[in-house]
Specification:
This protein is an alpha/beta fold. The chain folds into two domains: 208 residues, Rossmann fold; 162 residues, Rossmann fold (3-Layer(aba) Sandwich). The strands form two sheets. A seven-stranded parallel sheet has the order 3-2-1-4-5-6-7, sandwiched between helices. Strands 10-9-8-11-12 form a five-stranded parallel sheet, with helices on both faces.
Length: 404
């Protein structure tokens, strides 16, 4: 019988909430590992509301953390969260799992703690942070941005240095970690996220979904999902749709997420639904003609997997992080982020039903077949190999220092 392991995992949300990337992965792995007989504790900030999943599962213990971030200290919340999770891990576990800058205090074999430290990287926090520069205007916000940027470099670099195993969400992100923080390739690997294996739309479901959204028979529906307008490239999608509508095309952009679009006027063909339930999200995706992922930076667009599983063709930017599948065959990738290039790609797709059908079919075969079960199994195999390999030696050079 395979030995049972003790896990301590960090989630930014209550473990019953799988609504965002890292929390989603943690939630699904925790449930599957507990079901397989492992002991799993999930640490989360006290006060985080429960999600839609059952609050307690057999073998999964939710551990609320009391956090006391210090005012005016850059990235104090991330630092305090990492320390609190590390204290829980040192109380007894075999494997501690954190992500990005939150893992700067992980106990690890490399540091002689006897705990395997696994650092998940869903993109570089440093790159996400750099995108905030465009949104911080004025002297004080800019100074705060520079202080936060330095803090993120220090925390994330320290986390990479401590980790026994760094798991990136894609080969692209793994390469970014290796180049930015001088990660020894022997300590890194890529494991793609899984997705819910959703049933395909039933007969008549698409028609009913379009009717409920008041989408006319001649109208084409483009969908964008995400709560960070600038990073998700909402302005790119808006300009592309405006470009098409100016040429007489009947195209509507529906946005789903926590933040309204920069232009919410119905006359411009943009409709914001804000936060929606899983059932409503499915309805929107089923009703759509294309999913737009014009992100400026993304570790891995998990929504592309779900949308592809529902038969929706995907149009994704180079910055979307979608490095499974082949652009032009399994999804479309416009040449740039200009409104003209995105409008042209969208027009060609929406005007060519056979091509749209073929692209959706290939996307469903390639993008949507990665399950949460496969993801959890891949993580567990990687963990067991790392445990069997023993503690690696420290890197000779100063670890965790960003390059350039």
């Amino acid at each position: 019988m395979t030995e049972s392991l003790r896990f301590v995992m960090l989630s930014p949300r209550h473990p019953s909430d799988d609504s965002v990337g890292v929390a989603n992965v943690i939630s699904h792995m925790a449930r599957r590992w507990a079901k397989a007989g492992h002991q799993v504790r999930v640490c989360y900030p006290r006060g985080a509301p429960p999600g839609d999943l059952p609050a307690v599962w057999e073998g999964v213990q939710a551990v609320p953390m009391d956090l006391h971030p210090r005012a005016h200290v850059p990235k104090s919340l991330e630092a305090e969260t990492g320390k609190a999770m590390a204290r829980e891990a040192r109380s007894g576990c075999d494997v501690a799992i954190s992500n990005n800058e939150w893992g700067a205090d992980l106990p690890s074999r490399r540091r002689g703690d006897g705990v395997l430290a696994l650092l998940m990287m869903h993109g570089l926090a440093l790159h996400f942070m750099r995108l905030e520069r465009a949104t911080r205007r004025g002297i004080r916000p800019r100074l705060g941005y520079l202080a936060d940027l330095r803090a993120v470099r220090r925390l994330e670099g320290g986390a990479v240095a401590r980790a026994d195993l760094v798991v990136a969400v894609s080969k692209k992100v793994l390469h970014e970690v290796e180049m930015t923080y001088r990660l020894d390739p022997s300590r890194g690997m890529a494991i793609y996220n899984g997705s819910e294996q959703v049933p395909p739309p039933a007969l008549g479901e698409r028609e009913a979904a379009r009717a409920s959204l008041a989408i006319g028979p001649e109208e084409r529906l483009a969908v964008l999902v995400g709560g960070d307008p600038y990073r998700k490239g909402l302005d790119v999608a808006e300009r592309a749709v405006a470009h098409l509508r100016a040429s007489g095309r009947k195209v509507t952009l529906v946005t789903v997420g926590s933040t309204p679009p920069s232009s919410s006027r119905e006359s411009e063909g943009v409709r914001s639904l804000g936060r929606v339930s899983d059932a409503m999200l499915r309805q929107v995706l089923v009703a759509g003609d294309a999913l737009l992922v014009p992100s400026r930076y993304e570790g891995f667009p998990m929504i592309a997997q779900e949308a592809a599983g529902l038969g929706l063709p995907v149009v994704a930017s180079e910055g979307s992080g979608l490095d499974i599948g082949t652009p032009g065959r399994d999804f479309l990738q416009p040449a740039s982020t200009s409104a003209e290039d995105w409008g042209r790609a969208l027009l060609e797709l929406l005007a060519d039903e056979p091509r749209r059908t073929a692209l959706a079919a290939r996307g469903a075969r390639v993008l949507a077949q990665r399950s949460y079960d496969a993801m959890a199994a891949d993580y567990l195999r990687a963990i067991r190999r790392a445990l069997d390999a023993g503690a690696p030696s420290e890197q000779a050079e100063r670890p965790g220092a960003p390059v350039g």
